[in-house]
Amino acid sequence: MKKMLLSVLLAVSSIMAGPALAADKLTIDGSTTVGPIGDAFAEVFKDEIEITVSKTGSGDGAASLVEGRCDIAMMSRFMKASEFKTAVDNGAMPVAHAIAMDGVCVVVHPSNPVTALTTQQVRDIYTGKITNWKQIGGADKAIVVISRDTSSGTYETFEGLVMKKEKMSDGTEYVNSNPQAHTRVKSTEGAIGYVGLGFVDRSVKALSIDGIVPNRKTISEGIFPISRPLFLFTNGYPKLGSPAFRFCTYHLSEAGQEIIEAKGFIPVTAY
Fold first, then answer.
1. Residue 38 CB partners (closer than 8 Å, separation 6+)
2. How many other β-carbons are positioned within 10 Å of the β-carbon of residue 66?
3. Less CB within 10 Å around the terminal CB: N or C of the chain?
């Protein structure tokens, strides 16, 4: 009986510690939103650890972690129950590390006179009920609707908090990343899209939603209607002192906080 109990405890300990990792190598995959943070953190450790960062979307990152193709999954949403089930069925135990706060910002071309919309108006644009900017106080110009692809965590956040599961119109144009959404909006006067806070600059204009402007305060406090945490996921809690542990806890350092701020996101620390 004691031997059986010991075997069970060792098995559980092995799962919670995560998979054995190469001492000097990490493979990271997932969200294009979290990607700039992943790239910047990888740059910090580049002389000590061989790190590969791929940005294929939150859903792909989750699948890669579950299938053992990466050590860390970058995700701009929490892992779904179905993904957890698949992980457990495959002997994996996903652990979330919240590393920053973000806002999904609704953006338009800087020349657009519209500065504010309600959540309902945004939803009506994306379902095709509103098709011209003049219907909501803008110029007489057709609205070009830009969305992230359906495997994106940013898409799923937008779908859940704005669309409320309503179907987007057939005329919606889907793009694969935040940079692509940003590029389409800044180059198209009639466009509307949505990107993470870190991708808002002077070449696009972020709208206030339900009377709330997306900024550090409103997002960190969860007041902005489309706020969300950003995550790194590992298979089990990383072994203390391991490359994965150091990478996943770097956001807690002053240097890590500075990087997150520099990338336009909101740190979870306040040094």
1. 28, 30, 53, 55, 74
2. 24
3. N
Helices 81-89 and 58-66 pack at an angle, to 10 degrees, of 20
Assess contact for 32 and 77: CB atoms under 8 A. no
How distant is the alpha carbon of residue 135 from its chain centre? 32
Going by C-alpha positions, the residue among 93, 81, 98 that lies closest to residue 34 is 98
> Tens digits of per-residue pLDDT, 67-117?
999 999 999 999 999 999 999 999 999 999 999 999 999 999 999 999 999
Q: What is the set of domains in the chain, with CATH numbers?
A: 2-101+229-267 (3.40.190.10), 102-220 (3.40.190.10)
Cα separation, 51 vs 39, in Å, equals 9
Q: Which amino acid is at 46?
A: K
The single residue listed with the structure tokens 């450790």 is 45
Per-residue model confidence as pLDDT tens digits over 158-192: 999 999 989 999 999 999 999 999 999 999 999 99
Tokens of residue 28, six digits? 């990271």
Structure tokens at 35: 């990607």
φ and ψ of 53, to 5 deg: -115, 120
271 — pLDDT class (breaks 50, 70, 90): confident
Q: What is the model's pTM?
A: 0.80
Answer yes or no: are the C-beta atoms of 195 and 105 closer than 8 Å.
yes
DSSP label at 152?
A: -
